[in-house]
Amino acid sequence: MTDLRTSDEPLRRTLGLDRRRFLSTCTAVAAGAIAAPVLGAAPVHAATAPAAEPTGTGHALVPADRRGIILYTVRDAIGRDPLSTPLPSGFRAVFEQLARFGYRQVEFAGYGQHANAPGGASLESVAGARLLRGWLDEFGLRAQGNHGFIPPSWPLTTADLDTFKRHLEIANILGMAHMGTGGDPTSSSYKADWDVAADKWNTLGEIARRAGIKLYTHNHDAAYNFLLDGGPLDAQGRPTRSSGIRKLEYFLTVTDPQLVWLEMDVFWAHVAQYKFRAYTAHDGSAQTNVFDPAGLVERYDKRYPLFHAKDGVTNTTNGMGYDMVPFGTGVIDYTTFFSRVGHRNYHNPMVEQDNAPSATDPAQSLRHARIGYDNLARLRRR
What we know:
By secondary structure, this protein is α/β, with parallel strands linked by helices.
């Protein structure tokens, strides 16, 4: 094993860590994944070849050009003042660092950064999008999606429709194939509300299709709970029991597969597997139905062009079943997941870690992004 006491001195100094803190961090999140001094390395440009592929049994489950990251993971780096730190700050510097790690795709989580970064605070404009596109091209990155604006009202207001179309224009400038949101189509548990949401998303999906964009919804655990669609009615006339179909499964059946797409957050899908295992049937009987995330993707095939590749370790005391950790350092079996869903040249996994930023360790999110990339690249079919 590489001696961390000598080989990581440049990285330790760049990150501003004392020796004890640096070594303890390495131990906590798999020291081998950060053994190379990456943050001080030479810049990567579009013409620069990526690092050699790791060796192993079978082919890579995620091809090099499909390895991405959602920028929410490194939001602190994008948002910090570049005048206050030597660490990468703002979109351009972060793009350069992510490309150096090996990433070839990014998913946006908005277009804001620190006011002192190149381009200014907000790049949510045609001019801003052109600037971002130039940096993406410079470092050999492709924008694959964005968690952006989906009109909240229905029927659509003129103002919301105009804003939605402006976001589609930005997406096209950035070269995105997809545009979406981090919210569920509706927070309701009732079939009637999901029918309304389906009408709205079909309409928006048609507008997006005319612009050459696939519209997608990204979902956490709640969307995989059971739909209330029958049984005795409550005092407001709403159903109280379920047929056993999950809310998002129903949404898939009532939306047009050519207009509406989904991004599965694999971590939150496993949280749903832990939380939502039983329901009360229309006849009042208690039923068990354990959610199978990969099975849902298999059944709906290519309606899942995007994934969030997020990992966790078991915790049965927090109500979710998992605690979030850097990708590849947890217990979620991504080798089996990616092997089952197939279409390795179609799906676009985006590494995500909600808790990567640290108030006391400003380099943590980028370090964890490096760990995520390395572990995504190591996945091999058994």
